[in-house]
Amino acid sequence: MFNEKDIVMKSEHIVKQFPASHGRTLTACNDINLNVYKGKTLGIVGESGCGKSTFVRMVISMDKPTSGKIIYRGRNLAELSKKEIWENRQNLQMVFQDPLASFNPKMKIIDILTEPLMNYGKLKRSEKEAKAKELLEMVELPADFMYRYPHNMSGGQRQRISIARALSLEPEILVCDEATSALDVSVQKTVIELLVKLQKEKNISMIFICHDLALIQSFAHQIAVMYLGHIVEVIPGADVAHNSKHPYTLALLGAQFSIHMDPNEKIESIESEAPSPLDVPVGCPFQNRCEHCTEKCKKEMPALKEIENGHLVACHMIEA
Predict the structure, then answer these.
(1) 3-class SS string, the chain
(2) Tens-place pLDDT, residues 28-74
(3) Residues 32-42: pLDDT tens digits?
């Protein structure tokens, strides 16, 4: 399913650290190695504060890694000049969690949609209406929406506008940062269906970050599970429900609610709180919440090992 020749972007040993008070250091991402494949969706899931948003900020060159490389088209993104980053943004576009915060409230939708194309000199002023209509049709919205302002639209409609704007430049990779978390469940479903449809039509790659494992496993081709800045499991999306191995992934699955679940089945909460990112324990970062924790887990960090084709786990319990 995942061929090396189809890799369009890869991160190699990415570390991102921030200085904190009293001379301490916060490590938001620790040795992140992930691949993005042509026409596929990489889902990154984990609790708030696990480092997933920090990682995608480095992917789109909003931040630079402390160490490691993000390789795209043979170049390390951390080494690009400001002009090269600006030019490269045509290939890497982002859909944010709150579209209203990323729009200029004084701009009409027609200007919001066509602004990226105008900035890169890819559209004449006389072509704006026709292009706005085309982009609105792409995300299944009426053409007359182009004369509205963002505050005159629903959350789901604004997110469709955000998707249309991001895709206007025909990027190779679309990054979605919690793009559906602020939407009602029914609206989430339609937005995800739209993204899947557009991905198939345009053969684009997606990175979709989310804290909802139930949602992301429904459409992601590959899922990386993050905990306290570490990747603890990488697994094909179709295998998550029946083949997950890491205790944290299993705990996330056990905490899911579904209307289709057995009425006698209990929702299991994850015991205790995650430690502070400023005080990550030596050894396995999940040790204080894991019922299988041993002395080895408290002393030695488990390596992320491939146990099956495309399935990697960082846990001392699991033998490769």
Answers:
(1) CCCHHHEEEEEEEEEEEEECHHHCEEEEEEEEEEEEECCCEEEEECCCCCCHHHHHHHHCCCCCCCEEEEEECCEEHHHCCHHHHHHHCCCEEEECCCHHHHCCCCCCHHHHHHHHHHHCCCCCHHHHHHHHHHHHHHCCCCHHHHHCCHHHCCHHHHHHHHHHHHHCCCCCEEEEECCCCCCCHHHHHHHHHHHHHHHHHHCCEEEEEECCHHHHCCCCCEEEEEECCEEEEEEEHHHHHHHCCCHHHHHHHHCCCCCCCCCCCCCCCCCCCCCCHHHCCCCCCCHHHCCCCCHHHHHCCCCCEEEECCEEECCCCCCC
(2) 999 999 999 999 999 999 988 889 999 999 999 999 999 999 999 99
(3) 999 999 999 99
